């Protein structure tokens, strides 16, 4: 699981910020504040839907510091970059299953917000890599599912390839399998820990 979602844009940072604010307002997302960071660090815009915050703190008020409501917009040459943290980290860190669906929807909505602000099309997957072992039942389930959906993928057996196992741990910090790497155009990758059918369907455009 990535900790953040960033997109590059051919637009200047000022235009990206205006597009961000306009789209956020249209989606009912409240702009809370805006801070210009020193030494050309970019601009941090704080935004959120009150119902997101309310639902998270209703589960545990100590999670308030993990809510990713800050967007960074940074000028890079003639273009810019915009990014936001991954809301699903809240669920993975706190193991609060009651809000996992909401966090997934929040993640999806914020990614669309970033894409629109950057004037960039959604990232398209270019490859799939499934890290597995010979004895892992969930790996076998995911392998069968991908084959059933006719998704081309590379199967990497980390119990037979020490270098691949080290690569998986280095990229994700995960020791267990399955881990699925979805590779996107531009060299970006998204990692899915465990056999998460809903997340696979979302990223790969699979319909049931």
Report what the structure shows:
The protein has helices at 13-26, 50-59, 88-94, 100-118, 137-148, 162-172, 197-204; strands spanning 4-9, 30-36, 43-48, 70-76, 79-85, 125-132, 154-157, 179-184, 189-193. The protein is globular. The two termini are 23 Å apart. Helix 1 packs across helix 4. By secondary structure, the chain is an alpha+beta fold. The chain has two domains: 4-118, TATA-Binding Protein (2-Layer Sandwich); 125-204, Glutaredoxin (3-Layer(aba) Sandwich), CATH 3.40.30. The chain has a five-stranded antiparallel β-sheet with strand order 1-5-4-3-2. Strands 7-6-8-9 form a four-stranded mixed β-sheet, sandwiched between helices.
Number of domains: 2
Task: Bin the helical content.
Answer: 25-40%
At the fold tier of CATH, the topology name of the largest domain is TATA-Binding Protein
CATH architecture of the largest domain: 2-Layer Sandwich
Please provide the count of β strands.
9
Quaternary: single chain
Radius of gyration: 18 Å
Query: Distance N terminus to C terminus?
Result: 23 Å
State the secondary-structure class.
alpha+beta
Largest sheet: 5 strands, antiparallel
How do the strands line up in the largest sheet? 1-5-4-3-2
> Which band does the percent of strand residues land in?
25-35%
Integer average pLDDT:
88
Spatial shape: globular
Query: What is the N-to-C order of secondary-structure elements (H for helix, E for strand)?
Result: EHEEHEEHHEHEHEEH
Keywords, separated by commas or semicolons:
single chain; 208 residues; alpha+beta; 2 domains; 4-stranded mixed sheet; 7 helices; TATA-Binding Protein
